[in-house]
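Form 7-S
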Amino acid sequence: MKWERVLRLVPVVLILMVSAIVGMMIQPTWIVHQFTVTPEMLESPESAVSYQDSGLTPADLERYQQDASLPVQNEVLILEKNEDGSINYSRLIASKHFGFWSLLPAMVAIALCWYCREPLAALLMGIACGALVMQQYDLTENILLPSIATNQTAGIILLYLWLLGGLMGIWTRTGAAVAFAETVTRHFVRGPRSAKFVAWALGIVFFQGGTISTVIVGTTVKPISDQHRVSHEELSYIVDSTASPIACLIPFNAWPAYVQSLIFVPGVSYLMTESDRINFYFAALPLSFYAMAAILGTLLLSFDMAPFLGKRFRKAIDRARTTGQLSHINRQLTFESKTVSSQMQDHYQSHTAEFVVPILSLIAVAMGSFFWTGTPQVRWAFGLALLISAITAYIRGMTLQDIVKGIGEGLQGVVMFSLILVLAVTMGNITQTAGGGLYLVECLGGSIPYWLLPGTLFAFTIMIAFSTGTSWGTYAIAFPLTMPLAMAIASTQQLADEKLYLMINFACVLNGSVFGDQCSPISDTTIISALTTGTDLMDHVLTQIVPASLAAGVAVLGWTLLALTCN
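Output:
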């Protein structure tokens, strides 16, 4: 038995050895992209240098390749003087990739997710492989610590560990979530269909998308759906497929502000200013065919009218309805969606309003801050919801000690949950730094028929997002490269409706990233959807990918037909 366990570690050792050898033997390929910038976009124009002094010329890159050295700066602002004395500014950005080996960290993480069904171990292994490929041998100091010590990771810890954990803990102490579930069940749920429809409707209501939606909807609806024999595979698919897709279609969130910064194309008048690009984002929303198909598909599933789910999904539905077994008998759940271990206080009388009022305040602050500041302040929203829940519980008779205990128990319940999210972010950073997405984009090339580009970009961004487990990371990789590519093809092939063509390709990248992120086993939303609904991670992935692929096929057909009208 012990030797069997030792033998199981052999592939792990071999993978790490291959990663280390690649890091020592393979020299990175450097690629420089040049983007024109306007003077109003510059913070320090005095730092600009001439192109020859940038250190990023072809001769410089060849020297770096031969000497196995690195550029002094990966991003340089350059200026060029015209004959009339005017000055043009542009930005040179140097990126590297290790060819096929740039994909190794993501491939290892995905393979281990499929094999051992343990996302924490898979993510750690993928991170270790990426560190060895990049010759960063001190995993804690060079990889984990820099990733943790960022605003992004600190925001995740603050939001999901402290604010969300505390809120869940108070709701469990007061019984507010249970009271809400019982009220919804009593007034709205009459069986599996209505239970699934409630899950779908809540997914639409919580249009902030991403992990916020999956956590709230999953933890709220699970007790209801369990009572009516809704399989965990069904619930996880509804929760996951109404998270990011609805955030695409109702973008009163951080998405437009983030994406607009990535889609500037030199010389394109309707993409010049920030307001122009945000208007372009909203104008392209009707072209988000995948998001629409995904939301419609989950609605049809709610009414048991989904056209094609696949054999595995049908078996899961039949199993739950006939036997009451909500999860696969041969699967071990990766993590039960329990946020606390304590029981509701016996002396405390819960009320549905204790759940509804904090939720409404959360939505109001998120939407209001978006209209007021241009960016939804999600942490403000959750902080206020936590404060309202705590004050309400105190006024209604709960002691301060019990409130604090509830918050503490809530924090304990989401520690593993938060750790997985932090590692998922680190994994995405590793893959981007190793150049995985850049390598895939470089393979695409520039000579492609205009009508074929939308479907190609959709498939291409799916590959990147599936490999990295992040839609936003895919946007950062794909948009700065694919938008100029679409513009170049529109110009060289003399398309009649250039703007519509750019909008089609914009929608393909936006939706392809969502599809790849939604179906990736190393994506935070995929993992959280499985965790909060009590589904095995790979059961969720394998059942979801069939109906999601059908929605993707319908979307590609729509984009291709629409692109043909641009000529």
